[in-house]
Amino acid sequence: MITVTQARALLLALTAPLGVEDVPLIRAAGRVLARPVTARRNQPPFAASSMDGYAMKRAEVERHAMFKVIGEAAAGHSFNGTVGPGQAVRIFTGAPVPDGADFVVIQEDITRTGDLITIANEPGEKDNIRAEGGDFSTGTTISPPLSLRAEDIALMAAMNIPTVPVARKPIVALISTGDELVMPGETPGPDQIIVSNTFGLKAMLETVGADVRIMPIARDTVTSLKTTFELASSADLIVTIGGASVGDHDLVAPVSAELGMERSFYKVAMRPGKPLMAGKLGRSAMVGLPGNPVSAMICAEIFIKPMIRAMLGQDTTQADLMTAPLTAPLAANGPREHYMRAQLDRNGIAAFDNQDSAMLSVLARADALLVRPANDPARAIGEPVAYLPL
Ligand SMILES: Nc1nc2c(c(=O)[nH]1)N[C@H]1C(S)=C(S)[C@@H](COP(=O)(O)OP(=O)(O)OC[C@H]3O[C@@H](n4cnc5c(N)ncnc54)[C@H](O)[C@@H]3O)O[C@H]1N2
Ligand code: MOO
């Protein structure tokens, strides 16, 4: 059996960055920037007042000085003239600072009678002017790859970038397999359960930028599974769930082999997730996840999320695991790397007693995966252990 690190490298080798598409700025949040974008203007485009007050010459600014107000500058309406000695222009936040002025005294420091103003309080040194291009200037570049957050969208809008080149979303087809499965909302027979993995995986993979499509459930027959594979054949990544193990009804390996899947590996030394398989099927990468619901979710967290990142052209360097002291002891681990469902609190981390890979209620309560190397010895309270936050 290969290690988790080897499996990760083989899975990444099945992927390549996808193409680039232009989307309107309004649709760009959450997408991954694929090419550099460049500001088309200076911001602010002129020296602008940062306060409501009066614009004048810095050399004349001192307490008790008097000025004549000769006009007004508001945001969107500049003052068309020059401020001369002894003159001031009423100015508002965001307005262009008029020619001849290089200081804005805030209105709280001014008293006004008709067109005459007096600086009533000590005005300080701050000129209350934002320099032209102080935020960004023509040619300022945002570089890819970058997962675009609301903050980036606001900046691109200010830069006057109405369309954004982003990485095409990887299309992921999710195929649940099994005669026992029905969709949420349907009435299951006495020997049936509700499909859960496709829904959990769709939610998970959409958060990292995939376009996830749930295929019809494949039944435990060769024909049904083949038909479903065909339906999924245009996807960038086909993910099957279940039918990966060694039982008589576990058809994913034989059927995908019959369809020409070039296998990359089968089985990984990890818990849960041992019967993971992967390869290339037509033009799609294919991953066969184990059916146990927690195994499928953890394998997707560890393996499929990085594949999506690779297809989006993002960095796939693994982030370092975090460390926390144990708040409950751990028995010795076996020969497989173990991703234990665990809970963090301010004192440290504890794995749940029940690590059955069918228990979604335990997974849902977990906020971390405590990662144990193969053959890790028993660990006592207080010892540091590695974990991955969920
Ligand atoms: N003799 C052996 N038996 C098993 C082994 C083994 O090595 N030798 N490995 C076990 C491990 S570990 C796992 S993990 C499972 C994986 O089996 P499959 O991938 O073949 O999954 P299924 O048998 O189809 O299903 C397992 C379990 O999960 C439920 N399931 C499947 N798909 C879904 C879904 N989409 N949503 C919700 N639940 C799902 C299914 O009903 C089964 O209960 O094999 C062990 N056996
Ligand atoms: O590999 Mo299984 O996923 O341990 O339950």
From TrEMBL:
EC number: 2.10.1.1
Name used for this protein in its record: Molybdopterin molybdenumtransferase
Protein family per UniProt: Belongs to the MoeA family.
Cofactor: Mg(2+)
Role according to the record: Catalyzes the insertion of molybdate into adenylated molybdopterin with the concomitant release of AMP.
Enzyme class: transferase
Organism: Aliisedimentitalea scapharcae
Classification via SMART domains: MoCF_biosynth (SM00852)
Gene3D superfamilies assigned: MoaB/Mog-like domain, MoeA, C-terminal, domain IV, Molybdopterin biosynthesis moea protein, domain 2, Molybdopterin biosynthesis moea protein, domain 3
Domain called MoaB/Mog: residue spans: 173-310
Catalytic activity: adenylyl-molybdopterin + molybdate = Mo-molybdopterin + AMP + H(+)
Pathway named in the protein's UniProt entry: Cofactor biosynthesis; molybdopterin biosynthesis
InterPro entries (UniProt xref): MoaB/Mog-like_dom_sf, MoaB/Mog_dom, MoeA-like, MoeA_C_domain_IV, MoeA_C_domain_IV_sf, MoeA_linker/N, MoeA_linker/N_sf
Keywords: Magnesium, Metal-binding, Molybdenum, Molybdenum cofactor biosynthesis, Transferase
